[in-house]
Amino acid sequence: MKKISINKDIHLAKTLPSFFYLDNDYYQLSIKKIFESSWQIITDINSFKNNIYPFTFLEDSIDEPLLLTKKNNEIISLSNVCTHRGNILCEDSKSLKNILCKYHGRVFNFSGELISAPGFENVKNFPTKKDNLYQSKIKIWKNFILTSLSPKINLHEIFKDIEDRLNLYPFEKIKYDEESSKTYYIDAHWALYCENYLEGFHVPFIHHGLNRDIALNTYKTILLKNGVLQYTLSKSNEKKIGIPSKYLNSDENVYAYYYWLFPNMMLNFYSWGISINIIEPISKNKTRIKFLSYPIDNNIQPVKLDSSLDKVEKEDQAVVLNVQKGIASMFYNRGRYSSKHEMGVHHFHRLLCNYLN
Ligand code: FES
Ligand SMILES: [Fe+2]
């Protein structure tokens, strides 16, 4: 495989070569080297009502069956695969006393320890630690539960930045709303979707409605360790749209804070609540985009506006699909970065190369 490198100096650097998006080996390598090391938001503590919550780590690309358990408010993430002959242990979220394998009756407790194994009374050197369920890493941040198979991507600086800037944001009042949440599928590489998110350069060209709400000349891009923050102020006469200053460590009229967490999560803070985007690779040219909506109290996510998330999202997806076609051109290989507007994209590409190499 050809090695990719991106110059540290954005003024000299070239963007990712198109083979990164087109070559299946590169796709597989990103899953292995990046996504296996990543943290993924699984659910939130209020939505995890029962004491068992089975899930797949990254459906269609990693497909690792896992299980959250809850006991005395401690949440643990376990392998959902029986250590005997590999049966899947739990299929639905429910409240149980322990974890029973329905194949040959093995029982595990909520920490994953084997507590009974019928038929194994005379088996030698049994049980050992290997007969317990594997515990994967877990992180609870605010309301959210994240897991990782092998965490190498540290998100600490991003979470700290959110806590500092949004120090009074009412996390305790946000609630998942299924109705305004959505899943999209797009025939494009996951990284093309992320890099479009990482610049506001396209806003006046692609998002005419949004462009009327925000003061684009105030757009800022702040590079963080394994992340990027972008934010912009509201147009001054439309204060009501922005995040109320009582939530912020700032008296500026911030329209939204857009946090991107390497490689594939976005936390967007608005006056009405939080929208989380999770970008899940399915193949080198297919991606699932989950939009999870978390309004504050009785707020609702605005839907009819010209700047509504759904409208902006469709505008973004249309251009990402075009780029997917364009990068396959025999006349396109790689481009250059706008050093004024594309620091976030450059940072993303540098991170990709660091984790791949
Ligand atoms: S596979 Fe679970 S007890 Fe046999
Ligand atoms: Fe956009």
Report on the structure:
It is a single chain. The protein has 357 residues and is α+β, with helices and mostly antiparallel strands. The protein has 8 helices and 16 strands. The protein has helices at residues 19-22, 24-33, 156-165, 190-197, 203-206, 208-213, 309-326, 343-356, and strands at 40-44, 52-56, 65-71, 74-79, 99-100, 107-108, 114-116, 135-141, 144-148, 177-186, 214-224, 227-234, 254-261, 265-269, 273-283, 286-295. It has a 7-stranded antiparallel beta sheet with strand order 10-16-15-14-13-12-11. Helix 4 crosses helix 7 (309-326). The protein is globular, with a radius of gyration of 22 Å. The termini are close together. 35% of the residues are buried. The mean pLDDT is 95. Fe (ii) ion binds next to loops. Fe (ii) ion (FE2) binds at residues 196, 202, 206-207, 316.
Task: Kindly summarize this structure in a few lines.
21% of the residues lie in helices and 29% in strands.
Please describe the structure with a list of short key phrases separated by commas or semicolons.
alpha+beta; binds FE2/S2 (inorganic) cluster; six-stranded antiparallel β-sheet; 357 residues; 16 strands; seven-stranded antiparallel β-sheet; binds fe (ii) ion; globular
Structural class: alpha+beta
What distance lies between the first and last C-alpha atoms, to the nearest angstrom?
A: 11 Å
Bound molecules: FE2/S2 (inorganic) cluster, fe (ii) ion
How many β-strand runs? 16
Helix % is 10-25%
Please report which band the strand proportion falls in: under 5%, 5-15%, 15-25%, 25-35%, 35-45% or over 45%: 25-35%
Task: Report the biggest beta sheet as strand number plus sense, adding barrel if it closes.
Answer: 7 strands, antiparallel
Low-confidence segments, given as residue ranges, are none
- Average pLDDT reading: 95
How large, in whole angstroms, is the Cα Rg? 22 Å
User: What is the overall number of helices?
Assistant: 8
Shape: globular
**Strand sequence of the main sheet, in spatial order?**
10-16-15-14-13-12-11
Helices and strands, in order, run as HHEEEEEEEEEHEHHHEEEEEEHH
